Amino acid sequence: MLKIEHLQKHYDHFSLDCSLEIKEGCITGLIGQNGAGKSTTFKALLGLISMDGGNISIFEKDIHDITDQDKEDIGVVLSDSGFSGYLTIQDILPILRNLYKRFDETLFLKQVHRFQLPLDKKIKDFSTGMKAKLKVLVACTHNARLLILDEPTAGLDVIARDELLEILREYMEADETRSILISSHISSDLESLCDDIYMIHEGKIIMHEETDVLLSDYALLKLDEDQFEKLDQQYILRFKKESYGYSALTNQKQFYIENYPSIVIEKSTIDEIITMMVRGKEK
Amino acid sequence: MKGLLIKDFKLMKEQKNFLLIILIITIGMSLFTNDLSFALGFLTFIVSLFSLSTISYDEFDNGNAFLFTLPITRSKYVIEKYYLSMILGIGSWILSICIISIVNIFRNLLPFSDVLMTALFILPFMLLIQAIMIPFQLKFGGEKGRIAIIASIGALLLSGIVLVKIASFFNIDIIFILNHLPVVSMGMLVSILIIVAGMLWFISLKISMSIMNKKEF
Lengths: 283, 217
Hints:
A: Rossmann fold
């Protein structure tokens, strides 16, 4: 569906070198700190900025050959951009109708009513949650095959985030060949939604794993100095000095449970995995 | 393209009061001054530049980034802006001819053929102003674009003055020549002006496309 191979973009104090792939029928998450390169990656694959190197293909087509027709199959949410705030939902209806041949106006209006978005109020006067929902609805209601969502949940409260993720789940349920690429710096959003997760740090992908595997096979070992010395470290991804000794991140929880029954092994959250991947040392 | 045009007309609703004031001023000028040509040009020039304000609206709050994720290309975006300028320009030009003609029936200041000829002379200048303004606005945006407006009007005036000065240096009285041109030659002159301005307008369109295609959002 979407493939990025060594996408490069260089700025004065930042360099991006990113590869990732989104398969048909999958929701893929891109997670990383602010400034890690998520938005730069999104802008490059949407053709908003030029690339300094690498290849991007969408629907098996090189990004430079993507036509207007192809763009109708992509729904986009950008965190810092959207329809002009001076327009109302009533205003954007005929715009969407004329831009997208397969715009599902009935579904759009149904969802607008469901989330109680006002039709004749200027978007600039919407709350953050209302703006975010509108953006996602616009992206979801023209029968796109691929959604590219950059921080769609940024700045939202828990309820609004839940409602928004619900829209995305419904979008996926409607057609199983659809795919989503979604970025966030809030890992719990992605944990419940994504099939696989890429972790980006300082412009580079530092990890790619299926969400199920992340949650089932990854774990944090809590070790004192002695335990750490004697530990078989072949499945340790990162370790960090702590007040009590060491904490270590593994992707083979079962191995350590079976071979080191005395060690404290805790299930790790995605946040903890990120922190270890970014802050921990490689063995 | 149609979607973009609808967007721009919806955005221009924001300025309907301003448009109304321009219309009232035009009607006022045609009623109370004896120089109908100014009233003719005023409405045409101001309204045809409304497309610039839609470019500002698009840029506001980084709106361009989202705009170019929609199923449109950057070239189509530029073509739409020129198209819009043309619709607004020609529309307001026809409207101003109608207003002036109606007022003229009552005031009987000029023969209708003179109103039409004056109106025709406004067209190439309308095209020229659009041809200068749109690429400036796309390249520099709202703030610097305004400086460009002043600069381009200044440059136009200056080139006019220089032209007259050069002519007077060679003892040619342009006003006298213009006033004494036979009507056929006037027709010829205005046709040439429109063709030249049309060509410049087209070149400007190409320049604007290359400006937009190089932009990063």
